[in-house]
């Protein structure tokens, strides 16, 4: 993006987010004189006033500039070249970091803050110290940028939009937004850090429990897809608001069930969720719970679930590989309101004692001994995966 007219303001909205992510550090070394995302009311007012005074002639919205200064807690001081030089990194590396974080090119507009400089210095310092390779540092920037960009969009679209409805005649949403952001910002920042630390602790615990170094990257996991049936038809029949409410309800319910029963939600795709679990029993419980919960909700369409077990490659919080592809294929061929699993998953359930190796070998006491039942289905060729033998998973005694 070039730095012309209103483009500067839009670009700064993207570029400035890095300052929010590093507000504590930026406040410590920059002009704000305080830590915290907002930088303190006594400093944000000065930054906002100066931002409007110095940069208002660049075509930016003065109110947007005030909000930017409030959120970043620092003044615009640097062009990208100046920021890179102050951080002691090449312009090429600085550009790679910024683009990886999802920030737009802004030419040489004076739009960056002390926090942007410090963020560059920190990433480059990790590389210089040998703690991260340069490609890994770029990957860290990209994963952080993608995750926080989605979070920020959600908070603005769903959270702030509802809270900033004018409460008094004559007041605009913009007039309400500034004091609301001023109050919420430090609390949301602290909560974000708390959740991140909790998630980091959980992820670290999973990795150190791996049996060997290779398993830390290529791990054996159970991977499940849950897919709403007939979603494309729903998009033609429902109003946009109704469709949005349905998707949100589905994603919220699925996320809660996955977390409550010990799985990990990998991602949501509107009408589909992808989750993973360390063991087959956990993944099976989640899959059946999803079916049972959605079946009792009259507003929800039918659901199909496919689960596979095997080696999975993990990258940037996502999962890849043949096991993931197989789970997706099983979902597409699963009957409505049913769970299909692959033979490796069925074997893992039997090995862990959650299901019998053969239904023919169990007696009437099986309902007390096993949690799940497995019924072999017809073998079928699956494109790219050869012949697959699906198993229908049900709850024992259900």
Describe the fold and architecture:
With 398 residues, the protein is an alpha+beta fold. It is 56% helix and 15% strand. It starts with 5 loop residues before the first helix and ends with a strand.
**Coarse structural class:** alpha+beta
How many structural domains are formed by the residues? 2
Distance between the termini: 58 Å
Radius of gyration computed on alpha carbons: 26 Å
Low-pLDDT runs of 5+ residues are 1-59
Helix residue percentage: 55-70%
- State which percent range the strand residues make up: 5-15%
Q: What overall form do the CA principal axes indicate?
A: globular
Largest sheet: 8 strands, mixed
The average pLDDT is 78
User: Number of helix segments?
Assistant: 17
Instruction: Spell the H/E element sequence.
Output: HHHHHHHHHHHEHHEEHEEHEHHEEEE
Give me the count of strands: 10
Q: Care to give the gist of this entry?
A:
Strand 4 and strand 5 form a beta hairpin. By secondary structure, the protein is an alpha+beta fold.
